[in-house]
Every structure is written in C-alpha cells, then in structure tokens.
Design a protein that fits this description.
Blueprint: H1 3-29, H2 39-45, E1 53-59, E2 65-66, E3 72-78, E4 83-89, E5 101-108, E6 114-122, H3 130-136, E7 139-142, E8 148-152
C-alpha cells in the first residue's frame, strides 16, 4: 500500500472518530441542555420527583416568608404563566428579593413544591426593556433652518 493511501485512510479514520465522539457527547448532554426549567416548562415536561434540576423565574411579589429558625425561607417562583412554591434553608444572596430573577438548584417534591439546595440571584442595573431604551436614546438634531427637532432617531 502506498504512503498516500495510508495517509488518506488515517485521515478518514480520524474524521470518523471525531464525529463519533461529538455524537456521543451530544447524546450524553441532551437531557442537560436546558440551563433551567421555568415553572410552566417543569409542569409541561413533568420533571420527575427527586431529580436534581434548576428552576428559574421571578420571585413573586409578596411571597417571601422567613421561618422562625432564621435560615429557612419560603417563596414562590413564577414565569407569569405558572407558579411553584420553593423552600430553601441557608443564606440567600444579597440580590435576592421580590420581583427579581432567581435560579434555584434542587428538586421537586411529590406535592409539586420545590426544595432548593442553592439559590442564585442576578440583577443587572443596566438592563432596560427595549421600549424604554428606545425612548431614552432619541436624539435632538437641527433641521434645515437651524431649529432644534426633538425625538428624531
């Protein structure tokens, strides 16, 4: 067999091995592809009880309750479609508050509630809904006569 043919066969085997490894990795990660479940997704997908997952959404206004032990907290996560009651024992992040985003790591219970083992809260002061941002970025310009025009983009 010529050296040229050996290199071609070796290159083909390498490509097949890389494609096989990629397919194997994608297959192993297909169930973990979602970063978190929203309450509506969790109910729709019937997430199994006891399985470690992440639940994400907004902390419903007026839902935070602290228990007498000082470390257990109950609150409701919503995606404005469904809600899930959550219980967490531990210290919550400083950014954790009502009407803010939260991702809770833990598992669902048979009664439909969620017991969190970790709470992740994120709030970006710079975030602004697109409609508000559009209004704020309007500029003032001069028309042909030199008078100012407001509200042009």
């Amino acid at each position: 067999m010529k050296a040229k043919n050996q290199r071609l066969i070796l290159a083909l085997l390498a490509v097949v091995a890389i494609v096989g490894a990629a397919l194997l990795a994608m297959s192993a990660l297909k169930d973990q592809a979602a970063y978190f479940y929203t309450p509506a997704d969790a109910k729709k997908d019937h997430v199994e009880v006891g399985r470690a997952v992440r639940l994400g959404g907004m902390v419903q206004k007026g839902s935070i309750e602290r228990e007498a032990d000082g470390v257990t907290i109950r609150f409701v996560v919503t995606d404005n479609v469904e809600t899930v009651p959550v219980r967490f024992t531990g210290i919550v992040p400083d950014l954790f508050k009502e009407d803010s985003g939260v991702v809770a790591e833990g598992s669902f219970q048979p009664d439909g509630s969620f017991v969190a083992t970790n709470i992740l809260a994120k709030h970006d002061e710079r975030y602004m809904p697109p409609q508000v941002a559009g209004e704020m970025h309007k500029t003032e310009s001069l028309d042909a006569d030199g008078a100012q025009q407001k509200g042009t983009k």
